[in-house]
Design goal:
By secondary structure, this protein is of the alpha+beta class. The protein has one helix spanning 29-40; strands spanning 5-7, 14-16. A hairpin with a 6-residue loop joins β1 and β2 (14-16). The longest helix has 12 residues, at 29-40. It is elongated, with a radius of gyration of 21 Å.
């Protein structure tokens, strides 16, 4: 069976995707903690695709 290799989301280092990899998909505990820290500091953002209907202003003349 071929071993699957993925890149660490933090540093890009190749990581074997297997049960013995304790921090997968990260290469180390350090990268895992750094990623968690970035989420906690709100460095990562999920784009807001919905618009609030109350924010839309009408340009029509009545």
């Amino acid at each position: 069976m071929r071993q699957r290799i993925v890149n660490c989301p933090q540093c890009g280092k190749p990581v074997a995707w297997e049960t013995s990899s304790l921090f997968r998909p990260f290469c180390s505990e350090r990268c895992k903690i750094n990623d968690l820290s970035q989420w906690a500091q709100e460095s990562y953002r999920v784009p807001d695709s919905q618009t609030n209907p109350e924010d839309n202003t009408s340009t029509e003349s009545t």
